[in-house]
Amino acid sequence: MSARPIPPTSELTEPYWDAARRGELVVQRCERCGQRPFPPRAHCPGCGGPSLSWAPVSGRGTVHSYTVAHRPPHPVFAAQLPLVVAIVELEEGPRMVTNLVDCDPADLEVGMAVEARFEPIDDADMVLPVFTPTRRPGSTGTA
Ligand SMILES: [Zn+2]
């Protein structure tokens, strides 16, 4: 069995991964100008300030762009094809590269509403934030 690639972590990104383990999505916020940079930075890309704190976001956003992979980027992903790689724009502004899960690629469109979901990576103490289309109340979904 091949192991799934594990995202590298660092002192800078550990708060993001710790929050994901709790089922929470967090993004930095500049204490000087309010910008919400992502991925994590040591200094604000807007004003250069060094004071970036971590704050929760709603986990809601929209699809800014996406692509559908029909060949696995790594053998371990072969069972997940077609694999949707997307840029999701959070309602707070930051854009994240992520996977869209539990969706038919034929139903995808730019601008569609999505929400975060948290997927544990097998055999690793890590949880990966991914996104899935927002279900309307009363909808049963496709699972
Ligand atoms: Zn700033």
Describe the overall structure.
This protein is mainly β. The protein is 6% helix and 34% strand. The chain has one helix and seven strands, in the order H-E-E-E-E-E-E-E. Strand 6 and strand 7 form a beta hairpin. It is globular. Bound molecules: zinc ion (ZN).
Query: What structural class should be given to the helix and strand makeup?
Result: mainly beta
Give the proportion of residues in helices: under 10%
- Gap from first CA to last CA: 26 Å
Helix-strand sequence: HEEEEEEE
* β-strand number: 7
CATH class, named: Mainly Beta
Strand content: 25-35%
Task: Spell out the blueprint of helices and strands.
Layout: H1 14-21, E1 26-30, E2 52-56, E3 60-69, E4 83-90, E5 95-100, E6 113-120, E7 127-133
Antiparallel strand pairs: 1-2, 3-4, 3-6, 4-5, 6-7
Bound molecules: zinc ion (ZN).
Short description:
By secondary structure, this protein is mainly beta. It contains one helix and seven strands.
Properties at a glance:
34% strand, 5-stranded antiparallel β-sheet, two-stranded antiparallel ribbon, 143 residues
